[in-house]
Model the fold of this input.
Amino acid sequence: MALLVYKFGGTSVGSAERIKAVADKVKKAHDMGDQIVVVLSAMSGETNRLIALAKQMQAQPTEREMDVLISTGEQVTVALLTMALHDLGCEASSYTGAQVKILTDSSFTKARIRKIDDAKLRKDLDAGKVVVVAGFQGVDELGNITTLGRGGSDTTAVAIAAALKADECHIYTDVDGVYTTDPRVEPKARRLDHITFEEMLEMASLGSKVLQIRSVEFAGKYNVALRVLSSFKEGNGTLITYEDTQMESALISGIAFNRDEAKLTITGVPDLPGVAFKILGPIADANIEVDMIVQNIADDATTDFTFTVDRKDYQRALALLEQTCADLGARKVTGDNTIVKVSIVGVGMRSHAGIASTMFKTLAEEGINIRMIATSEIKISVVVDEKYLELAVRALHAAFELDKISA
Amino acid sequence: MALLVYKFGGTSVGSAERIKAVADKVKKAHDMGDQIVVVLSAMSGETNRLIALAKQMQAQPTEREMDVLISTGEQVTVALLTMALHDLGCEASSYTGAQVKILTDSSFTKARIRKIDDAKLRKDLDAGKVVVVAGFQGVDELGNITTLGRGGSDTTAVAIAAALKADECHIYTDVDGVYTTDPRVEPKARRLDHITFEEMLEMASLGSKVLQIRSVEFAGKYNVALRVLSSFKEGNGTLITYEDTQMESALISGIAFNRDEAKLTITGVPDLPGVAFKILGPIADANIEVDMIVQNIADDATTDFTFTVDRKDYQRALALLEQTCADLGARKVTGDNTIVKVSIVGVGMRSHAGIASTMFKTLAEEGINIRMIATSEIKISVVVDEKYLELAVRALHAAFELDKISA
Done:
């Protein structure tokens, strides 16, 4: 008998039929003897409908009231699923975040969970009931309703799993697991049985949008075993744990990429202390997020400085950088918003040499010019022209034998 | 400066535009210096939409979960109105029933209010804020969400007015007050400035569906001054108070009628003790509500017994009565489902003689045959053929000079 937390997103509960399908799945697991806590999002489209209503009231709706409004979305789905479970003869009770109680700080629309009271949940589980909890929401110390912001239902599920010391937290989505790379780019991509939190974080931050980064971080922090599965297909999905449980780990686990990159370079900057801050300060002040940063000494007393930003911020960043160039007396600014980032990710890198050179050799053999390189302990990212994205992903996928990974 | 509770029903908050109109009205009253608590229903249609979803889950949805589900309707409107008030620069906060807290018993879908904690409301009012409360809902001692059943938002408003000792509780509806009779039947019908609780109860129970009986009873019990007004038209509406505040009260306040009546008679019943129970027992067991009851000694040792029921129950009641007739050895059963009830209502009856005779004389002069009579302290009801309804109402309206009532 396992204690499992199941989380279903908006698409999985997007209609009466789908809610009933979720009830079937939960009932089956419960019948097998597992203790189940279900965490739900709002029906897909519902949150947007409510936000549209709010904007008719107030251009910038008050955040406290926004949370009162949008938290109704999950309250509706937990009641409906519980009814569907009762209809199948499965004992169950629904709880809002406030009822549980999921105590958060008072940062409306982006609250952080402080503490979860597990008393009601444990009591129901011990009585053999399924517990159905509204995701995405909590309550502050004054009794105000709060919501957790983007990906909040995943966070609720992980936090409850941590509080209950659940065996696994299952995140049901519209994909059936984490893949070695995007199957739309490389049809030979394989589903991974297992991946570590660190790898998952790197994959997620690179655009593999299976899970919200915040919930993966949270799961890692509290050592909650996460499993990503499909709501619609049978299968074991991908298990994400803190430790690498494989005896012999693969060199790399996957290839991630991000199409939304743009690159800016300022050259001939007088190389003085604090130059990085002078260049990036105005960018940060404009709320533009910088991704990769590379600095080279170009010659004598000047330096070249290159960084990437999201493409939507490219024009603003370029204008700011032109100003900085004039202020610092640098030579010139160049930019390119037709580049992409391709990364190989894997904890195997730690213990194996030669991964980087295999990557660079593979790309060179395909005639792909590397424009920028950045590395972390378990990731190597390169920037290449966007026209090479598919070629690069497929070549690396083959070179690291990801199509042969054990399923 | 008055402390007022405003209640707006589903039609009054049925769209973004209407919610904004409510915000305007509240803002104006608040600007005049009044302290305002607003109680809201769900947007019209929303509760039905949610119930339809529930029925797709479970033919007979679990009542606890039904309350979790449908209480979201009011939670949405309180958040939206509060945003609209903020948009007008009016300080306000929303509260669900649980947040207030409106403590009820645990009778899901038809809970009764036990106690209202006025701390949060008073604090906000003292700080100059408008308080916006979700109607129709509360919370039980275990923290379960409950709803109050039909007319629940009116009840919430009255209960909050009682708890806060508000000066008046304003019920905004789609009519602009209580009329001397239905203006669709008698165009000369006049809006009453004032009516007593007892009169209002008699009017309401007789089919003047301006207010739910339960909220009128509740207001009477706690001596809360109720005012019925239109959400859409300006005006002072009708004030309903416990005492008759007029120096010189009108003889009668209004003429109510009910088209949904049917009459059944059993004649030649051997007149023995317990006969009324033997006749009405099977009717009550079948959950058929009996309205008027008249018993006459017909001759020697037998009695005639007549009563009215709702027309929808007529056929069932008739069949039951035929069986009783056979069991008791009575003569025969007759029935008529083309009758109506017309009533005059007024506290003035208590101190004035001759009201009944004026009524009977008026009807006789119009050639209207009275089929049945029943009286209470402040009401006289007659049953007549349905074809005479309009004639009877207009004749009585003129006879008691209701068209001349002081406005």
Notes: Residues 3-173 of chain B form a domain with the Carbamate kinase fold (CATH 3.40.1160.10). Chain B has a mean pLDDT of 90.
